[in-house]
Amino acid sequence: MSDYKYYLDEGIVDFRNGKYSNALENINASIELKDDWEISFFYRGVVNQALENYDDAMLDYTKALKLNPKMTDAYYNKAYITLTRKDIESPNYNQAIKDLEKAIELDPKFIDALYAMAAAHKKLGNYHESLEYLEKLLQIEPQAVNAKALKKLILQKYII
Q1: Alpha-carbon distances of 15 from 41, 44, 112, 116, 129, rounded to whole Å
Q2: Is 78:59 a contact under the CB 8 Å cutoff?
């Protein structure tokens, strides 16, 4: 079978079924057949992220973005990895913010990206900026429980 889409589809099915090593094999086969298709790199990044192979995931998302700079989810996933990794001493929150800015620019109603942006600014001590993103999120989704809770925490603990 020499159809790169077939191998990607098989890889996605394997991923969804928790068969990560099979998923990587199939997605790698897709990339070998067509190494300029951003979707394969994106999904390989997703599998690597699930396997906690964060450096590989970041490389895959970066490659996907080089091939298609409008992949909103790739920007978000890169930022998410940066913001949640526990295995590096000083994460580059500023890069995460740049990635989230791009995701939000491409999709202004991307609720997860707005929340992540608020969390990133909170981690950097930029509480007013954090609140601005939470307000944008709450305008879109007024019942967002996590956003309401983070807003309350910031207002009570950091802005007095």
Answers
A1: 14, 10, 22, 25, 37
A2: no
Q: C-alpha 90: how far from its chain's center?
A: 18
Q: What are the E-state strand segments in the chain?
A: none
- Contact at 8 Å (CB) between 92 and 105? no
Cα 39 from chain centre: 14
* CB-facing half-sphere around the CA of 160: CA atoms within 13 A: 2
Q: Are 40 and 34 in contact (CB under 8 A)?
A: yes
The span from the CA of 151 to the CA of 123, in Å, is 13
pTM for this one?
Answer: 0.89
| 10-65 residue pLDDT tens | 999 999 999 999 999 999 999 999 999 999 999 999 999 999 999 999 999 999 99
Pick the most confident of 83-92, 127-136, 149-158.
127-136
pLDDT tens readout for residues 59-97 = 999 999 999 999 999 999 999 999 888 777 777 888 999
Evaluate whether 144 touches 137 at the Cβ level (below 8 Å).
yes
Q: How far apart are CA 124 and CA 149, in angstroms?
A: 18
Q: Where is 138: in which H helix or E strand?
A: helix 127-140
